Amino acid sequence: MHRPNLIAIAAGAAIAGAAFLAGNAEARRPVVxxxxxxxxxxxxxxxxxxxxxxxxxxxxxxxxLEARFIEEGRARSAALEAMDKEIxxxxxxEAKERKLDEFRLKRLQAEAWNGMKELELDRERSLKxxxxxxxxxxxxxxxxxNEKLDLxxxxxxxxxxxxxxxxxxxxxxxxxxxxxxxxxxxxSTRTVDVTEKLIVQxxxxxxxxx
Length: 210
Description:
Blueprint: H1 3-28, E1 40-43, H2 45-51, H3 53-89, H4 94-147, E2 151-154, H5 172-182, E3 192-193, H6 195-205
Parallel strand pairs: 1-2, 1-3
C-alpha cells in the first residue's frame, strides 16, 4: 500500500473517532428546557375596593355607628348647655358652687367620652380595611387557581406622579420620591387585567347579608 493511502486512512479514522467522541459528549449533555412563561394578571385595587359587597356593608355599618355617636354627643352637649344656663341663673352661694362642680365633672366626662368614641370609630375603620384586604387576598388565590395564573400584581403602571405646595405639606421632592418608592409596576405588556373577574369571584363567594 502506498504511503499517501495510509495517511488518508489514518486521517479518516481520526475524523471518525473525533465525531464519535463529540456525539457521545453531546448525548451526555443535560437537556435544558426553557421555562414556561409566567402567567401574570393585574388588578386595579381602587375599582376592587369601590365595588366589593363587603366594603359596602362595612360602610353602612360605619355610617350608622358614626351617626349614633354624633346623636349621643349632641345630647350630651345640649345637657351641658342647659346646666350652664341653670348655673348662670342661680344666686351666688354654696348651692351654685356644688352645681358648678357637677357641671365641670360632666364636661370632663363628655370630653373623655368623645375621645373614646373617636378611638372606637377609628378601630372599626381599621377593621374594615383589614377584612376587605383579607377578602381580596383570599379571592385572588382562588382566582389564580381557576384562571391558571402564576402571579397577580396591583396595576400601578398608569399612576401619575404629582406634587403640590401647601402649608403643612412636605417639600415637593420628598412628595415625588415617596410616590416613586411606592410604585411596583413600571411597564407591562403581556398581562391580563383580572379586576372584573376578581370582583365577581369575591362577591359571589361572600354570604349575602341578612
